[in-house]
C-alpha cells in the first residue's frame, strides 16, 4: 500500500531535519578546527579531534534516555552562543597553563566539541518519522552516517569554499545559535486565550482560531527574540580579529601590532610586529622591534625593525611599501640559502653569471629579494596568494616582473612545465632553485619525492644548483629521507646550518635546527668562493653568515645510513608528512619560546 500524504510529509521532514543537523554539525567542526589551529597548529589540533568527535556522536546514539528535540533546540542555542568565547578562552587558558600541544587541545575538545557534537547529533539520532524513539540499531546507523558526512564536509569541502574565508567562527556559531533559538520558539507548545464562542460554533472554527492565536503569539515572541538577539549578538563574539583585517590592529595592553590577517589557501596568514615595550632595558637579541609573517602556528620569516635596522657603511636599508626601513632577517637560514650564489664548482658558478633563479615557497621573500637585487631573473612559485601579497607589502619584495609569479601548487606547476618541454616548447632553464617548504610543524610531502626532483631537473640547467631548506631534528628519520632522496636524484650534496653557536654532535639528536642542503648534478665536488662586500647588500647578517660558511657545515655522514634504499621517498612510499607531524609537538614548544603567548593569541 502507498503511504498516506501525512506519512510522506513526516518522512520528508525527518530527512530535512537530519540533513540540516548534519550540515550544522559540519560547520561547527569546521569553525572550531579553524579557530584552534592558530593557537595549536594543525597537527596537535587534529590529533585527537576526530576521535573525540566520533565518541561524542556515538554516545548520543547509545545512551538510554529519550531527549525532547524541542528542549534540545534550546540546549543547542545555548551551547552555540557560548561556543565563540569558550573555544578561544579555553584554548588560550590550556595553552598557557598546560603548555602541552597534546593535552591542551584534548582538554579544549572535551570542553567545547564534545557537548556541541552531542547536542547537534541528537537531532539526527532522535529524529524519527513516527515520533517515538527508534531502537538502538537505527540510531547507530544514523549517527554513523552523520559523523562521516559531517567530518568530511568540515575537513574537505568547507575549507575550499572561498566565501567562508570572510566569515568568522563567531559568525558561524552565532548564526546557528539564532536558528536554534528561533526554531525552539516557533515549535514551542503554547496556549493562547481564545474569545468566548457560542455553542453553535463548530469545533473546526475553534481549531482555526486557536491556530491563528498561536501564530500571533509566536510571531510576537520571535520579533522580541530577534530584537534582543541583535542587541547582544556582538557581545557574544570572541576577541579574534576580523579576517581580512582592514587596518592595523594595535593591542591595547601589549607591545604588539597586527598589520594583516587573512584566511587563505594554507590557513590563516598573519603579519605581526613586536614593538618595544615601555621602559625596555633588555638585550638586542630579544624578540622586540621585529616584524614577522606567520601561517597558523608557524613563523615563515621576518625582519628587524626600528632601532634594530642596521646597515653596513651607511648604505640605504630596504623599505616596505609604506616607506618603513627594514632590517636583517630574524632567521639566518634565509640568508644561508643565498650562499648558493657563492658556489664556484660549476661552469656558471666559476663565471659568477647566474641568470635565472626559481623560488619554490616564498615566506617573507628574503632570498628572492636578494636574487632580484643581484640582477638575477627570479621566478616565484608560491601556493598561497596571501603570502605573496604580504611579502610585497610588508617585507620589501620587489616586483619580480611579468610572467615571473605563479600562485599555485609547485608540483602542478613543475609538471606543467615538464609537459610543455616534452611537447617541444622552449622553457626557461634555471641555474638556481631554492626550495623552502618546511614550516616546521608540517610539510607538503608531495614535493619531496624522487619523482618531483626528477621532474624538476628537466627545468634546470645541467649543472644547476638546488638549495633545499630542512627544519627539524637533524638526525631524524625525516632528515635521512630528505638527504638520501636528494642524493639519489642529484648525486652531489653538502649541507650547512644556521646556528650562531657550534653544532655539536649531541645537538644533532635534540635541537630543532634549520639546515640548507645544496645539491647539483655537476661531477665536481661542490665548492664555494669567499664572500665579498657586494654579496652583503649592506647587511651585517649576510656578512656574518656568508663569511662563516665553512664553519657551518653539517656532517652528512653522521645522518646517512647504509640501507639508503628504504629512505628514498617516492610517490608510493612517502611517510614524510606523518614523521613531521610527530615533530609538530616539539615545533609548537619552540614557537612558544620564540614569541610571547599574546602574539599567538592575537590573530
UniProtKB/TrEMBL annotation:
PANTHER family for the chain: THERMOSPERMINE SYNTHASE ACAULIS5
Chain ranges passing through the membrane: 12-32, 44-62, 74-94, 106-124, 174-194, 215-233
Keyword line: Membrane, Polyamine biosynthesis, Transmembrane, Transmembrane helix
Gene3D superfamilies for this protein: Vaccinia Virus protein VP39 (3.40.50.150)
CDD domains: AdoMet_MTases
Biological process annotations from GO: polyamine biosynthetic process
Name of the protein in its database record: Spermidine synthase
Amino acid at each position: 500500500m502507498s503511504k498516506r500524504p501525512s506519512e510522506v510529509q513526516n518522512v520528508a521532514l525527518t530527512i530535512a531535519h537530519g540533513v540540516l543537523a548534519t550540515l550544522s554539525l559540519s560547520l561547527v567542526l569546521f569553525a572550531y578546527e579553524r579557530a584552534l589551529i592558530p593557537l595549536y597548529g594543525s597537527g596537535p589540533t587534529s590529533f585527537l579531534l576526530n576521535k573525540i568527535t566520533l565518541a561524542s556522536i556515538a554516545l548520543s546514539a547509545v545512551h538510554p534516555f529519550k531527549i525532547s528535540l524541542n528542549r534540545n533546540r534550546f540546549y543547542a542555542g545555548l551551547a552555540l552562543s557560548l561556543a565563540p568565547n569558550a573555544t578561544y578562552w579555553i584554548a588560550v587558558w590550556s595553552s598557557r597553563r598546560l603548555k602541552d600541544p597534546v593535552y591542551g587541545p584534548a582538554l579544549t575538545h572535551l570542553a567545547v566539541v564534545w557537548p556541541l557534537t552531542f547536542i547537534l547529533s541528537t537531532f539526527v539520532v532522535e529524529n524519527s518519522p513516527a515520533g517515538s524513539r527508534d531502537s538502538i540499531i537505527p540510531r547507530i546507523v544514523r549517527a554513523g552516517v552523520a559523523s562521516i558526512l559531517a567530518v568530511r564536509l568540515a575537513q574537505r569541502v568547507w575549507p575550499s569554499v572561498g566565501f567562508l574565508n570572510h566569515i568568522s567562527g563567531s559568525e558561524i556559531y552565532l548564526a546557528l545559535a539564532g536558528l536554534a533559538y528561533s526554531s525552539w520558539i516557533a515549535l514551542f507548545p503554547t496556549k493562547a486565550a481564545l474569545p468566548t464562542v457560542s455553542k453553535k460554533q463548530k469545533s473546526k472554527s475553534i481549531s482555526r482560531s486557536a491556530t491563528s492565536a498561536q501564530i500571533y503569539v509566536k510571531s510576537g515572541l520571535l520579533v522580541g527574540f530577534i530584537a534582543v538577539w541583535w542587541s547582544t549578538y556582538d557581545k557574544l563574539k570572541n576577541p579574534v580579529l576580523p579576517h581580512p583585517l582592514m587596518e592595523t590592529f594595535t593591542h591595547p595592553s601589549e607591545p604588539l601590532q597586527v598589520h594583516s590577517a587573512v584566511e587563505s589557501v594554507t590557513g590563516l596568514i598573519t603579519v605581526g610586529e613586536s614593538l618595544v615595550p615601555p621602559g625596555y632595558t633588555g638585550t638586542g637579541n630579544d624578540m622586540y622591534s621585529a616584524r614577522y609573517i606567520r601561517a597558523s602556528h608557524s613563523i615563515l620569516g621576518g625582519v628587524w625593525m626600528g632601532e634594530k635596522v642596521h646597515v653596513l657603511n651607511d648604505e640605504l636599508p630596504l623599505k616596505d611599501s609604506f616607506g618603513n626601513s627594514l632590517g636583517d632577517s630574524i632567521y639566518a637560514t634565509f640568508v644561508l640559502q643565498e650562499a648558493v650564489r657563492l658556489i664556484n664548482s660549476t661552469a656558471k658558478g666559476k663565471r659568477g653569471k647566474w641568470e635565472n633563479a626559481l623560488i619554490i615557497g616564498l615566506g617573507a621573500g628574503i632570498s628572492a629579494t636578494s636574487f632580484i637585487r643581484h640582477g638575477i631573473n627570479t621566478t616565484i612559485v608560491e601556493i598561497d596568494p596571501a603570502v605573496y601579497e604580504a611579502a610585497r607589502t610588508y617585507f620589501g619584495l620587489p616586483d619580480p616582473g611579468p610572467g615571473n609569479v605563479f600562485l599555485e601548487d609547485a608540483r602542478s606547476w613543475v609538471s606543467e612545465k615538464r609537459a610543455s618541454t616534452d611537447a617541444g616548447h622552449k622553457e626557461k632553464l634555471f641555474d638556481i632553485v631554492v626550495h623552502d617548504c618546511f614550516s616546521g610543524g608540517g610539510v607538503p610531502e608531495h614535493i619531496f619525492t624522487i619523482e618531483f626532483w626528477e621532474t624538476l631537473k628537466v627545468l634546470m640547467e645541467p649543472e644547476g644548483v638546488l638549495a633545499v631548506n630542512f627544519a627539524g631534528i637533524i638526525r631524524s628519520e625525516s632528515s635521512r629521507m630528505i638527504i638520501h632522496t636528494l642524493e639519489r636524484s642529484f648525486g652531489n650534496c653538502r649541507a650547512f646550518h644556521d646556528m650562531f653557536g657550534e653544532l655539536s654532535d649531541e645537538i644533532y639528536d635534540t635541537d630543532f635546527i634549520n639546515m640548507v642542503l645544496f645539491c647539483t648534478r655537476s661531477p665536481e665536488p661542490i665548492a664555494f668562493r669567499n664572500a665579498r662586500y657586494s654579496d652583503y647588500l649592506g647587511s651585517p647578517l649576510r656578512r656574518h653568515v656568508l663569511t662563516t660558511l665553512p664553519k657551518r657545515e653539517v656532517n652528512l655522514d653522521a645522518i646517512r645510513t647504509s640501507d639508503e634504499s628504504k629512505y628514498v621517498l617516492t610517490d608510493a612510499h612517502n611517510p614524510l608528512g606523518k614523521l613531521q607531524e610527530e615533530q609538530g609537538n616539539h615545533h609548537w614548544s619552540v614557537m612558544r619560546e620564540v614569541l610571547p603567548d599574546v602574539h599567538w593569541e592575537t590573530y
